[in-house]
Design a protein that fits this description.
Elements lengths: L1 H42 L5 E3 L5 E8 L6 E9 L9 H4 E5 L4 E2 L1 E6 L6 E9 L7 E9 L2 E9 L1
Antiparallel strand pairs: 1-2, 2-3, 3-7, 4-5, 4-8, 6-7, 8-9
């Protein structure tokens, strides 16, 4: 009987330590993600840019524009209460570096055309060298010829 109590105590202790180790791993992964976001925030000025011209408001936040990134990613939100947002964001968006080089998006992972609220991630191939500044241009959304979102490193 005494041996059974010892075994139960050991199993309970191991189970407790196992849960703590799992929690520690989760915290470390969350800290890593927050650290990458913090590094990106430090690398750029004015992290979130917003444009409220016309009938559609557009908000853009760089998610990953690190020098060693394969793709540069931007969180894009479009909101309105008066028109349908039908534009193909792959067709109406471009990234321009300080040298004037233009990069077309490689993917849009988000809401399909239509509706009053759209959001997703716009991806571009990372420039070969990190520019001192770059601009995301979104054209012909909500009756506005072009919207420019600019960041500097």
């Amino acid at each position: 009987m005494k041996n059974a109590a010892i075994i139960i105590t050991i199993v309970a202790l191991l189970a407790f330590l196992g849960v703590k180790a799992k929690d520690s791993i989760s915290v470390n992964v969350g800290q890593r993600s927050a650290k990458v976001q913090e590094e990106t925030a430090r690398e750029t000025n004015n992290i979130t840019e917003e444009n409220n011209e016309g009938d559609v408001s557009v908000t853009v936040t760089p998610m990953d524009v690190r020098q060693d990134a394969t793709n540069w990613t931007f969180d894009v939100s479009l909101n309105t209460h008066s028109v349908e947002i039908n534009e193909d964001l792959m067709a109406v968006s471009e990234l321009i570096d300080e040298q004037g080089r233009i990069y077309k998006p490689v993917s849009w992972e988000g809401s399909p055309p239509g509706g009053h609220h759209r959001s997703g991630v716009l991806k571009f191939s990372a420039p070969p060298t990190t520019p001192g500044s770059y601009e995301l241009v979104i054209k012909q959304v909500g009756g506005v010829e072009e919207r420019r979102f600019k960041w500097t490193f």
